[in-house]
């Protein structure tokens, strides 16, 4: 396909789940859906960059978001073509020029804690210096509305498990874009690619993930221009440190009516406090 900007791009979707025969604890055989996992080797102007292990939900957006978040492509207008071919498990991206510092950038490779061994090229923190993220206020009631809305957007996880879900959401609780993938870093790169392609203003949006908020996740979200993070999992020390440096509102362990605010507490309006639990019930709820 060709979009409005002249970018030639495939739409190479792949099956998200496959059925397999499994045996339960009673010795009975039954069908079980399994999340698909497939390699996708990314080439930039015929140069091999990385192999991503992915579900394959939206591979073109994934590779674009990856290149953007790694600083290998700065402008969407520079991209001429994105071609994904699952038969050879490859994605070829053609741009109008190759970055002058690509050798130095690719040399600085750090293996991160992301599922599937995500990688961060170069010194991303250098690119984030001086970044000014919009400091807007989020309401507690909006968080609860958003968590309710997100329950309708994890079809692959409900069917097969073994995947992470990420979403771009409005403060009003609307899920603007949702993606599931084997690794949460793949899901956030896919969303970054979609935002880029659709030209969505992200400075008043919320990023949601089912995975933990590591330094990689915080940096990638900041590069997307988003200053509010919400996770049903926890956060790492370095992730929190970077969130504090960038003025990010970070909420984690969000499930039901419970959440913890790790940073940016002044940006949250507590307008819908739930009734306090009894001490014994509260401890039991947090342990769960």
UniProtKB/TrEMBL annotation:
Q: Which HAMAP family match?
A: FdhD
InterPro entries with a match to the protein in the record? Cytidine_deaminase-like (IPR016193), FdhD (IPR003786)
Q: Which keywords does this Swiss-Prot/TrEMBL entry list?
A: Cytoplasm, Molybdenum cofactor biosynthesis, Transferase
Q: What does this protein do?
A: Required for formate dehydrogenase (FDH) activity. Acts as a sulfur carrier protein that transfers sulfur from IscS to the molybdenum cofactor prior to its insertion into FDH.
Q: Is Cytoplasm found in the keyword set?
A: yes
Instruction: Output the superkingdom of the source species.
Output: Bacteria
Q: Which family does it belong to?
A: Belongs to the FdhD family.
A single GO cellular-component term on record:
cytoplasm
Q: Where in the cell is it found?
A: Cytoplasm
Task: Give GO terms for biological process.
Answer: Mo-molybdopterin cofactor biosynthetic process
Primary place of residence?
cytoplasm
Report the protein name in the record: Sulfur carrier protein FdhD
Q: Which residues form the active site?
A: 115
Q: Which residues form a coiled coil?
A: none
Q: What NCBIfam families does its record include? A: fdhD_narQ
User: Which Pfam families does UniProt cross-reference here?
Assistant: FdhD-NarQ (PF02634)
Name the gene. Answer: fdhD
Which species is listed as the source?
Nitrincola iocasae
What Gene Ontology molecular function terms does this protein carry?
sulfur carrier activity; sulfurtransferase activity
């Amino acid at each position: 396909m060709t979009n409005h900007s002249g970018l030639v791009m495939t739409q190479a979707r792949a099956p998200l789940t496959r059925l397999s025969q499994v045996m339960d604890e009673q010795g009975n055989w039954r069908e079980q859906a399994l999340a698909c996992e497939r390699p996708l080797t990314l080439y930039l102007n015929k140069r091999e960059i990385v192999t991503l292990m992915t579900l394959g939900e939206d591979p073109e957006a994934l590779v674009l978001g990856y290149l953007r978040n790694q600083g290998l492509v700065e402008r969407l207008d520079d991209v001429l073509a994105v071609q994904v071919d699952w038969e050879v498990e490859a994605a070829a991206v053609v741009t109008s020029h190759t970055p002058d510092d690509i050798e130095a950038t690719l040399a600085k490779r750090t293996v991160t804690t992301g599922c599937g061994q995500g990688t961060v090229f170069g010194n991303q923190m250098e690119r984030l210096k001086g970044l000014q993220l919009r400091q807007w206020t989020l309401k507690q009631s909006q968080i609860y509305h958003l968590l309710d809305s997100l329950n309708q957007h994890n079809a692959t996880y409900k069917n097969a498990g073994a995947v992470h879900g990420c979403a771009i959401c409005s403060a009003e609780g609307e899920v603007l874009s949702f993606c599931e993938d084997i690794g949460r870093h793949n899901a956030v790169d896919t969303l970054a690619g979609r935002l880029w392609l659709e030209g969505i203003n992200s400075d008043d949006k919320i990023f949601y993930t089912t995975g933990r908020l590591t330094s990689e996740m915080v940096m990638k979200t900041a590069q997307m221009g988003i200053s509010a993070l919400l996770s049903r999992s926890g956060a790492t020390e370095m992730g929190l440190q970077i969130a504090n440096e960038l003025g990010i509102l970070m909420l984690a362990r969000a499930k039901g009516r419970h959440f913890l605010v790790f940073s940016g507490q002044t940006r949250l309006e507590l307008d819908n406090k739930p009734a306090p639990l009894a001490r014994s019930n509260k401890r039991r709820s947090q342990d769960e």
